[in-house]
Structures are given as structure tokens and as C-alpha cells.
Amino acid sequence: MSPIQLRRRIVEAAIAASLAGGLVFGLPSPRDVSAQAESSPAAKRAQELAWDDAAPGPKQPVPFSHALHAGQFQIDCLYCHSGTDRSAVAGVPSVETCMGCHTQFGQDLEGIQILKQYWDAQEPIPWEQIHRSPEHVQFKHNRHVAAEVPCERCHGPVGEMDKLSLTSDTIWWPWLLPSKKLEMGWCVNCHRENQASQDCLTCHY
Description:
Distance between the termini: 32 Å
Order of helices and strands: HHHHHHHHEEHH
Largest sheet: 2 strands, antiparallel
Radius of gyration: 19 Å
């Protein structure tokens, strides 16, 4: 079992234990969400910052803060973006995954109330995509996770970001041409630095 799979199993076990505890002590089921204890000031502030119009990045349908979840609570990327170590596509967490935690807390937050509306309607959340490769480029997440490329290498310091956006990063090719993040030169430079294949068919169909 890889370290990534082990971390995922530990998080899953912890959440399963908390849900089991909820059954023992009479806490509500995922379809019986009622008001719980008031959320922390940090959670309320994170929700505000996730919808800050002045911050870079699109306003998402739910004010989700990566700084709170991935940063403060140290939730592993692969817990929410499950299967990224096995699939070429990262995907987004299901509403069920989110509700697995938020049946227990956060019901006084507007974001969780919006989340529950999607859950009750059994509809996926229409997240605004931020990181996108051109259609003629094949990017395989599982290959990069297996090579132990940190998620932050491409997605930026998400553990510090309340509102997610494409972070800036510009490199200069040997020919003194600028290349921004996710552009071809930026990716080729990373492959060059890590002795990965630079064959055209590695990335292009």
C-alpha cells in the first residue's frame, strides 16, 4: 500500500468512526440535518473569504475554503478528489462526500445550507472549472501522483487559499521566451527538470 493510499484509509477510518459515534449518541442521519452547535469564527471567516469579490478567481456556487479544509484541518487532497491516484481525471467530490462530514456540523453556515439544497435535490454542484488543459493535450493525474509530483506544483498553495484561482508562475525558456503556468513551455520545463519524457506523443494526441 502506498503512503497516499495509507493516508486515505486513515482519514476514511476517522470519519467512519465519527459517523458511527453519531449513531451511538443519536446524532442525525445524512437526511436528517438540523441545527447544531454554532460554527467557529474561523469557519465563518473562511466562508466570507471564499466569496470575496475582490479576491482572484471565480465565485463558486458554494463558498468552499481550501485554506480551512486542506490547510487548517489538513484533509488530504485524495480524500475529496478520490481516485486521482488511479484515474487520468481528478474530478470533484460528490455531494455525498461533503454531506458525510457536514451532517455533524456547520448547519448555521450559508454555504452548508446551500450544500444541503443540492443534497436534497440529489443534484451535483456546478463548480466553475479553474484548471483546464487544451483539448489536444492529454494530462494524466494518476501518472503525476505516482511520480510524487505535489498537487501544489500545478494548483498552487491551495492550503492557503480561501478562494481558488489559477496562480501565476512564469518561466523563461532557454530562448528567453516567457511561458506561463499550464502553457506548453511551462510543462516542458517541468519535464526537463525532472528527467521526464519530452516526446510529443507523451502529451499530445
